[in-house]
């Protein structure tokens, strides 16, 4: 009994570009805190009362945004390693290495780097876009969001003028 050869589609420029795009998207998804964003998307309609403006709902929405934003930023400063027995351990990245450290492994290579801060910044930016431009949050914070661009522009102009 002979095995059939596996079919391999021909490699074309379009296929190569598509594959590179999908690989890049997969890498991006691995870097973003998808669990936090999913939890925010799940709880936001409940806590905002589907966009109805009550004072309590504004505070609840603000707390949810703050906690979720902290989680997105904090996730950029965590990492994991596998010990010699195959167990996965998680820790917080510090200047000296991963904390809590392992007595049997050298974890000094897990140090804070500029990339960790860049990753945290962009994770927060992506979360802010998802959170603040969502339909329920936008309806609660629409007046603030309408005033925000001119305020940021004015503050930036002053800073650029002074410096």
Automatic annotation (TrEMBL):
Gene Ontology cellular component annotations, sorted alphabetically: cytoplasm; membrane
Annotated localization: Membrane
Membrane spanning residue stretches: 117-138, 144-162
GO terms for biological process, alphabetical: endomembrane system organization
Lineage top rank: taxon: Eukaryota
Keywords, alphabetical: Membrane, Transmembrane, Transmembrane helix
Record-linked Pfam families: DUF679
Topology of the protein relative to the lipid bilayer: Multi-pass membrane protein
UniProt-listed InterPro entries: DMP (IPR007770)
Chief location bin: membrane
UniProt family annotation: Belongs to the plant DMP1 protein family.
Protein name, per record: Protein DMP2
Organism: Sesamum radiatum
């Amino acid at each position: 009994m002979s095995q059939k050869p596996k079919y391999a589609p021909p490699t074309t420029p379009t296929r190569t570009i598509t594959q590179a795009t999908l690989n890049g998207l997969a890498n991006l998804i691995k870097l973003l805190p998808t669990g936090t964003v999913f939890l925010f998307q799940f709880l936001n309609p409940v806590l905002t009362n589907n966009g109805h403006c009550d004072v309590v709902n504004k505070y609840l929405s603000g707390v949810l945004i703050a906690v979720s934003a902290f989680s997105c930023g904090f996730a950029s400063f965590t990492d994991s390693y596998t010990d010699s027995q195959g167990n996965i351990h998680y820790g917080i990245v510090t200047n000296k290495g991963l904390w809590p450290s392992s007595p049997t492994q050298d974890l000094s290579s897990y140090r804070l780097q500029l990339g960790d801060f860049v990753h945290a910044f962009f994770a927060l930016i992506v979360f802010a876009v998802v959170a603040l431009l969502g339909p329920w949050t936008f309806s609660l914070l629409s007046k603030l969001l309408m005033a925000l661009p001119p305020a940021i522009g004015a503050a930036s102009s002053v800073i650029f003028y002074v410096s």
